Automatic annotation (TrEMBL):
Protein keywords: Dioxygenase, Oxidoreductase
Domain of life (superkingdom): Bacteria
Taxonomic lineage: Bacteria, Bacillati, Actinomycetota, Thermoleophilia, Solirubrobacterales
Family: Belongs to the bacterial ring-hydroxylating dioxygenase beta subunit family.
Swiss-Prot/TrEMBL GO biological process terms: 3-phenylpropionate catabolic process
Keyword Ligase: no
Pfam families: Ring_hydroxyl_B
Protein's UniProt name: 3-phenylpropionate/cinnamic acid dioxygenase small subunit
Record's keyword annotation contains Oxidoreductase: yes
Entry-linked InterPro entries: NTF2-like_dom_sf, Rng_hydr_dOase-bsu
Originating species: Conexibacter arvalis
Coiled coil location: none
CDD domains the record matches: ring_hydroxylating_dioxygenases_beta
Length: 179
């Protein structure tokens, strides 16, 4: 490429404005979770949302996928997510009482148009730091998130979230936080 040439993205690429809007949206969503603003957070989802975290398995090379989509840590829709949010404000959410301190870090944003005309698929790497109590113990949970963002009445909403964790055996005592 010469000094005066301009790199042109292919026609099917996502515009810089759409990428920036999606990135800002997902970073703000992570901050809502870290700040425990769950009542605001639940409003970021479409009514038909699919929120799935499958189980990882250990398989020898050539023996199929190491993702077991039939076994899931989470298999939520809007109603079950809303119920989990409401439960966190009660005294029966023992896995999050006292609440965890969390920090979500998103990176390596990758964008694909669709699947529908008003949707954008965004893959990110997720690193979740979580600590509880006063012992200094903490959990690090890493994985890849695939979000389908949908434009609904001029606002982005999460229509699908799949999180594939990078661990077959979770070291955390419970998975009472959202990913």
């Amino acid at each position: 490429m010469s000094a005066g040439s301009i790199w042109v993205l292919p026609a099917e690429a996502v515009s810089p404005a759409a990428r920036l809007a999606a990135e800002d949206f997902l970073i703000a969503e992570a901050a809502m979770l870290d700040e425990r603003r769950f009542d605001e957070w639940i409003e970021l989802f479409t009514d038909d949302v699919e929120y799935i975290v499958p189980v990882r398995t250990i398989r020898r090379v050539g023996n199929g996928s190491d993702i077991d989509w039939e076994s899931r840590h989470y298999d939520d829709n809007k109603a079950s997510l809303s119920l989990r949010v409401r439960r966190l404000s009660t005294d029966v959410a023992w896995s999050e009482d006292p609440p965890s301190f969390t920090r979500r870090v998103l990176g390596n944003f990758r964008y694909t148009p669709g699947p529908a005309a008003t949707e954008l698929t965004v893959k990110t790497n997720l690193l979740l730091f979580r600590s509880r109590g006063t012992t200094g113990d903490h959990d690090l949970i890493a994985g890849e998130r695939t979000d389908v963002l949908r434009l609904v009445e001029g606002e982005l909403k999460i229509a699908k979230r799949h999180v594939v964790l990078d661990q077959a055996m979770l070291g955390t005592k419970n998975l009472g936080v959202f990913l």
